[in-house]
Amino acid sequence: AQSVTQLGSHVSVSEGALVLLRCNYSSSVPPYLFWYVQYPNQGLQLLLKYTSAATLVKGINGFEAEFKKSETSFHLTKPSAHMSDAAEYFCAVSVKGGSEKLVFGKGTKLTVNP
Amino acid sequence: DADVTQTPRNRITKTGKRIMLECSQTKGHDRMYWYRQDPGLGLQLIYYSFDVKDINKGEISDGYSVSRQAQAKFSLSLESAIPNQTALYFCATSDLRGRGNTEAFFGQGTRLTVV
Fold first, then answer.
1. Contact B100 A43 (CB under 8 A)
2. Which residues of B touch A94 (CB under 8 A)?
3. What is the mean pLDDT of chain B?
4. For a surface tag, which of A46, A97, B31, B81 has the fewest beta carbons within 10 Å of its beta carbon?
C-alpha cells in the first residue's frame, strides 16, 4: 500500500526566503503525487501534481516540486516566500490502475514571518 | 456557486444523536469521497463511491455510514455521534476518466462538534 511522510509538521520562514516542504512517498508501483494547500477555514486546493510526464512540476503561486524516484521524494519549493503563502500544505499519493483514492500526509503548517 | 457544496458548514450536536452531513457537486464527476481531518493527522478517508451503486469503506468507516442518492449527492451519517467524532469533514470529487492522475476537488468543509 502507498503512504506519504511529510517531514516537519511546522515550518517557519521569513518573507522573501526559500520555502522547502519535504515529502517522501512509499509505493510499490509508479505513483501519482500531489501537493494541496489549505488556507484557514477553507477546503483543499491543488497546487501541483506529478503524473510521470516531467519530473519537475510547476504549480500555481510560484510553487514547484521535483519527483526524485531514487530518493522517493517529491519536495515542494518556492524561491521567495510571501505572507499569503501561510497555510497548511498536504502531500498526497495515488497509484495508477488502483482504487485511485488519495492517501494524504499529515500536513505541514507554513508560517511566514515579516 | 461552489462546485462542491457541503451543508451544514458548522454543527454542534449531542452525544448519541444522529446527524447527517450533505454534499452536492456540479462538476459532473462520478467519484465522491468523504474525508475527516484532525489536527496533526492529515486527512483520513471514511468512505468513497465510484458511482451510485458502488460504495466502499475507507480507512476509518466505523461509526459512519453513507448514501449516494444520485451522481451529484453523497451524504455522510453518524448514527450515534460520540465526542471523538468531533472533527472537520470534507467531501471531495474526482473524474472517473482520470484513472488516478486527476485532482480531487474539495468542498469547504463541515466543522462538527459532538458534546
1. no
2. 100-101
3. 91
4. A97
